Amino acid sequence: MDKQIWNVLIADDEPIIREGIRNVIDWSALQMNVIAEAEDGEEAIELSLMHSVDILLIDINMPIANGLMVIKQVKAKLPDCQIIIITGYDEFKYAQEAVRLNVFDYLLKPIDPDHLMGLLNKIKMELVEVNKKRALLDRTSEQFTKNLPTLQHNFFREWIGGKLTNEEIKEQLAFYYLNTSIPKQLVVISCLEFLENKSILSEKEKGEIQESLKYHILLFLKHKEIGYFHDESGLIALIIWQTITNEVALQLEEYIRKELKMSIAIYINNNEVDYKQLFSLYKNCKEMIQKEMNISPIVRRAKSIIDHQYADSSLSLEKVAITLQVSPVYLSRLMKQELKVSFVQLLTTKRMKQAIYLLQSTDYPIITISQLVGYETQHYFSTAFKKIMGVSPNKYRRNIMEETNNIK
């Protein structure tokens, strides 16, 4: 490997001083090279920055820009530059101020060659040490960057596992270059083929499926800020700082089905939650998914379609049956048998839950909410809502507001 050569700039307004310094030292023996000379302060600044000098020897009393000004500007741009100031006895106060500016040392005129040589040797050792530290830092940084995905994954595991305090979560979010604000959503994804066959899959096959899912999910959601985590059971959790809609979730399901020939189920929590609440939300999702495993694939897909397309006022048993390529009668009987509720009851429950959320968390007009949850008219929505909740949507909202005001 080539030896490091350090660039030196000599700055003095007296040519004889510059020449003396240049000639009195065996620069090559020190692995140093006098890259340039400057005769005033302005030129010293310009040449120092142009050549990114490692060592600057400068007279404290320079024309145009004095030595102190040069030192300040050079140190601001080249903090590792080692500076030796040259001064006379009558300038010693300036030299003391220069030392406060973090110069390496000073030389008194007339210059003692042995003293200068000693200082340059010390500087060389200092620069060698700086280079070693920088190389170590670069290697450490490179290793950190290489391991960052694994480190982030382990952090998400601890976070969702409920093992961290809010303060620890915020600190680690910042440390791992992640968004420190409260996430907008928790999305849990289950791969049905993985969950149904994990007992017969080898560890290698499990790893390949998880990596393939991760790649395609993150590729599909590449413009979103996401924290990705999968656990041993095969469930995938996405901590999301920019919301994804039900429509996007459905598109993701179709994308995975097309690209990987796998079926996934997506569970979205649309409420912004505190850092610590992710643990309980994830736990609830896991329990719900375990129950889902007792449901046939056709009914699971029907439920998924309802979860993501409930806002479509034309959604019907017949439409879902066509999508699933089964008869409406068969689908209706299967849903009733496995879920103990009809298709219409399941769809209405989903719509009402979302309507309640919107009534509580937004000031949208009732007509807007009715459209957002899949009803063609406000009257039809209000009738359905009152039948289930016992009060009209307007009355329900007023009750919520009154309760909130009473608490305050």
Automatic annotation (TrEMBL):
GO terms of molecular function: DNA-binding transcription factor activity; sequence-specific DNA binding
Gene3D superfamilies associated with the record: 3.40.50.2300, Homeodomain-like (1.10.10.60)
Keywords assigned: Cytoplasm, DNA-binding, Phosphoprotein, Transcription, Transcription regulation, Two-component regulatory system
Record-linked SUPFAM superfamilies: CheY-like, Homeodomain-like
Pfam families per record: HTH_18, Response_reg
PROSITE patterns registered for this protein in UniProt: HTH_ARAC_FAMILY_1 (PS00041), HTH_ARAC_FAMILY_2 (PS01124), RESPONSE_REGULATORY (PS50110)
GO biological process: phosphorelay signal transduction system
InterPro entries: CheY-like_superfamily, Homeodomain-like_sf, HptR, HTH_AraC, HTH_AraC-typ_CS, Sig_transdc_resp-reg_receiver, Tscrpt_reg_AraC-type_HTH
UniProt protein name: Uncharacterized protein
